[in-house]
Amino acid sequence: MVCVRVYSRFCAFLVLCLLFLLGLDTVRAEDIPKILLANLKQDQELTSRELNTIRSEVEMLRREYAQLRVVVDQVQRFLSQSQGQENSKFTELQNKVLVLELAIKQTEKARSLMQEELNKKFQQIVEQMNSGFEQVTSVKSAQAKASTPTFSSDYPKNGFVHKVDKGETVSSIAKKYESQVNWIINANQIADPTKVFVGRELFVPQK
Q1: In a structure prediction context, what are the per-residue pLDDT tens digits for the chain, which is 207 residues long?
Q2: Per-residue confidence (pLDDT) for residue 194, from 0 to 100
Q3: ∠ CA(12), CA(17), CA(19), 5° rounding?
Q4: Separation of CA 135 from chain center
Q5: Which of 195, 130, 136, 199 is nearest to 162 (CA)?
Q6: For residue 197, what are the CA distances in angstroms to 49, 58, 142, 149, 158?
Q7: Does residue 84 come out as left (phi exceeding 0), alpha (psi in the -120 to 50 range) or beta?
Q8: What backbone phi and psi angles, to 5 degrees, belong to 178?
Q9: Looking at residue 21, what is its pLDDT?
């Protein structure tokens, strides 16, 4: 059950990273760690419940073992006074004690192996999460650099300031004052020439 839950969480992590890399709006970068941590906490709680159940079973077996040991001691005292038919019962009780001791050892060994496996899986998930975050961060950084416009300083430094009126564009302003569109864009560092709003003051370079 632990392996199935860990595998399902890892698959969910890969799906989230894929959605994020594809740029879908349903997943945000800051939400991925929260989702994954919530899944890890849920797995840890379920595992803790299973370990608590195993501990309870071990404790119950130990109590039964203690009770049987008391019975065996009583039988041993009784057999020291009278031998005969009770020998078979004593042997049967001894066999039950041996079986119970073996069951306790096997249960404790299984619990220890389960804990070690869980620790390894958690370590692998943490390493995979760190690797995924590094990839997502590098991709987003590259996209941000690619989308950042660059501007040239190669334009006339002489000119004047023009306040954009309704219906005007960078092209119409350049044509109106016998300037150039690239000059206006570079001088005012306009990232999107189609989004020049009314009332904005632009420096119009002129030779």
Answers
A1: 544 454 555 555 555 555 555 544 454 556 666 676 777 777 778 777 888 888 888 888 888 888 888 888 887 777 777 666 666 777 888 888 888 888 888 888 888 888 888 888 878 887 877 777 677 776 666 565 556 778 888 899 999 899 999 999 999 999 999 999 999 999 999 988 888 889 999 999 998
A2: 86
A3: 95
A4: 14
A5: 199
A6: 61, 75, 29, 19, 23
A7: left
A8: 55, 45
A9: 52
pTM beyond 0.85, yes or no = no
The token duo for 169 is 């564009």
Amino acid occupying residue 40: L
Contacts 24+ apart (CB under 8 A), 25-34: 29/136, 29/140, 32/133, 32/136, 33/129, 33/133
In angstroms, the first-to-last Cα distance of the chain is: 77
The two tokens of residue 68 are: 């049987």
Fold observed for domain 159-205:
Membrane-bound Lytic Murein Transglycosylase D; Chain A (3.10.350)
Name 139's Cβ contacts closer than 8 Å, sequence gap at least 6: 21
Distance in angstroms (rounded) separating the CA atoms of residues 196 and 186: 14
**CA 199 – CA 165 distance, rounded (Å):** 6
Task: Parse the chain into domains and list their residue ranges.
Answer: 2-147, 159-205
